[in-house]
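Could you show me just one protein sequence together with its fold in token form as a worked example?
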Amino acid sequence: MAKLRKPRISLDEIPGDLATVKDICDWTGASKNTVYEWCRSGLLRGEVVRFGRQIRIPKRALARLLEEDS
């Protein structure tokens, strides 16, 4: 499983309570493929919220990951 990279931007810079895959890419600097892998089977598996084919991840889950990684 890939490890969460050090954030490049603050979570406060992501609007709303849910983050898109692009938001997470911007936040971590990881590629889209890596973030989708985290959503499928890794770091974010239990946190994914789906709206049809769209994926959103609660910012509180990202904050938790950041705390666990420290």
Summary: The chain has a mean pLDDT of 83.
